[in-house]
């Protein structure tokens, strides 16, 4: 049986009726910023007011591409722009902390790309900055807000697959080795774990509950960062997470949440458009949840809904949840011996 859901619920999703536009700024002009813009443009109540880059030329080019009225030649100028309500931080994660704190202390709300920071200590500094400034902060874990994942949480809560006993998730791609790139340079907090491994860690953590055990093995790149990692997490109730990530090989993006009486399978699970439910003794059920745009629209809509409600964090990606994920990532790196300069 197949269910097509073309109009997902308002939260998380596109608001049904436009309110006063939320004025966005985009900090960083790389590929992820362009993808975010595609999703953001699907929201009728979102207005992109400004972009900021490290140089005038890149800011101006991004502004021309997306018809953005103001282009700033520095992150500081974007943070100081009074016509911006919330900033999307799209930089490499090695500068997430500094960029986000700059914006928060300037009075801007912040949606920051995953991982929130290089380590839990930096993430805690970001949370403290948000708390001190009274500003919204959320890690841009788009997986959490996809309509298909909303349905997964509902099915698990309803007991559709019984008690969760295992979560498996893999993700990876083959990236040409370049010791100076953000993926392999230790000074840029390179490695598979922080780039893509944060996704399976976040997925497993959502369904395993409190993590009580972490085991990991890694294949190092020549620079010493992790080129691929295998992780086993143990939840407080004994459920296990079997996770893998790589920048050396194209690993199928497949995930499964397995319970005592069924399972849920997800393809392209880091932002899925459907799921397959297997109930014990019943035919499999396929459910489709196509995106309005490309999937980034749902996390942006969540930010806007929380801002309008006067809230500083999202219950689906709270400060405590981001800190919990950051601590698990720290523990995995400790297990495989990856330490970045300055840590």
UniProtKB/TrEMBL annotation:
Family the UniProt entry places it in: Belongs to the Gfo/Idh/MocA family.
UniProt keyword Oxidoreductase, yes or no: yes
Location of the GFO/IDH/MocA-like oxidoreductase domain: 150-265
Annotated keywords: Oxidoreductase
Top-level taxonomic group: Bacteria
Protein name: Gfo/Idh/MocA family oxidoreductase
UniProt entry tagged with the keyword Oxidoreductase: yes
InterPro entries to which the protein is assigned, alphabetical: Gfo/Idh/MocA-like_OxRdtase_N, Gfo/Idh/MocA_domain, GFO_IDH_MocA-like_dom, NAD(P)-bd_dom_sf
PANTHER family per the UniProt record, alphabetical: OXIDOREDUCTASES, TRANS-1,2-DIHYDROBENZENE-1,2-DIOL DEHYDROGENASE
Chain intervals for the UniProt region annotation (Disordered): 1-20
Cross-referenced Pfam families: GFO_IDH_MocA, GFO_IDH_MocA_C3
Residue ranges occupied by any Gfo/Idh/MocA-like oxidoreductase N-terminal domain in the UniProt entry: 22-138
One MF term in the entry's GO annotations: oxidoreductase activity
């Amino acid at each position: 049986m197949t269910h097509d859901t073309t109009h997902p619920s308002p939260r998380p999703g596109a608001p049904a009726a436009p309110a006063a536009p939320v004025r966005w700024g985009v900090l960083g002009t790389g590929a992820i910023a362009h993808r975010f813009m595609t999703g953001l443009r699907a929201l009728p109540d979102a207005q992109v007011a400004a972009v900021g880059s490290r140089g005038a030329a890149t800011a101006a080019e991004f502004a021309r591409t997306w018809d953005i009225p103001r282009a700033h030649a520095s992150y500081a100028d974007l943070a100081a722009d009074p016509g911006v309500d919330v900033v999307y931080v799209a930089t490499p994660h090695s500068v997430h902390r500094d960029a986000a704190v700059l914006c928060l202390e300037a009075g801007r709300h912040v949606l920051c790309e995953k991982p929130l920071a290089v380590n839990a200590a930096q993430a805690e500094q970001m949370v403290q900055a948000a708390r001190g400034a009274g500003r919204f902060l959320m890690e841009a874990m788009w997986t959490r807000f996809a309509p298909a994942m909303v349905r997964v949480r509902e099915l698990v809560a309803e007991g559709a697959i019984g008690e969760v006993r295992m979560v498996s998730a893999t993700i990876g791609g083959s990236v040409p080795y370049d010791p100076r790139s953000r993926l392999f340079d230790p000074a840029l907090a390179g490695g598979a774990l922080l780039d893509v491994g944060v996704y399976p860690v976040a997925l497993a953590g959502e369904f395993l509950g409190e993590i009580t055990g972490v085991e990991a093995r890694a294949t190092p790149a020549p620079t010493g960062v992790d080129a691929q990692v295998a992780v086993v997490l143990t939840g407080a109730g004994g459920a296990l997470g079997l996770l893998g990530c790589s920048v050396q090989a194209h690993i199928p993006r497949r995930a499964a949440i397995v319970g005592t009486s069924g399972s849920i399978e997800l393809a392209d699970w880091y932002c899925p458009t459907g799921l397959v439910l297997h109930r014990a003794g019943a035919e499999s059920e396929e459910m489709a949840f196509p995106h309005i745009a490309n999937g980034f629209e749902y996390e942006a809509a969540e930010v806007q809904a929380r801002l309008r409600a006067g809230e500083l964090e999202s219950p689906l990606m709270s400060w405590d949840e981001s800190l919990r994920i950051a601590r698990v990532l720290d523990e995995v790196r400790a297990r495989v011996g990856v330490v970045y300069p300055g840590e």
